[in-house]
Amino acid sequence: MISFLSGQVIDESDGVLTILCRGVGYEVMSSNNTIEDIQDRKVVQLWIHTHVREDQLSLFGFSSKIEKKLFLSLIKVNGVGPKLAIQVLSGASLDQIIDAIENKDVKALTALPRVGKKTAEQMILTLKGALVVDKQESQAPEPVRPHKEILSALTNLGFRSAEVEEVVFALPKDIDFEQGVRDSLRTLSK
Asked: Measuring CA to CA, which of 37, 70, 149, 189 is 20 to 30 A from 137?
């Protein structure tokens, strides 16, 4: 399963991003909140939910772990599939959605795209009291110390930062500086 992608957005149309990762373009459905959050970044990092059905494999991407957790909670609600969950997340901020569920605000929930009264009531019944989120999870992971030094060394050698970031984020977390530079140079020189 794909759980995280780091790459360059090469296309965006109607909530579907095409992310280039090492020569492969992944089609990722995202909420308006995520699209706005990543809008001006050269390299994006998304938490991914891989949704597999008998006839389809779909990727859903989120700029924060909190949004991914809320999405996973929403698709557990009877009658809410992944596409509807993405539309719900696009209809309001995460805090507004969580507050509406916790405060049993059916009116606020029915104001979200494609959410009727029965679906709103089902969301409240299923999720009230179960939405615990950690604000520290809201950001994409920062590279560990050696990775920052490797990034700096490679950009100082004249490589484009978008390429360097993609290569360095793919390195193992426990790699040391010298090995990381060697591995990155080998990849970048191909």
From this structure: 149
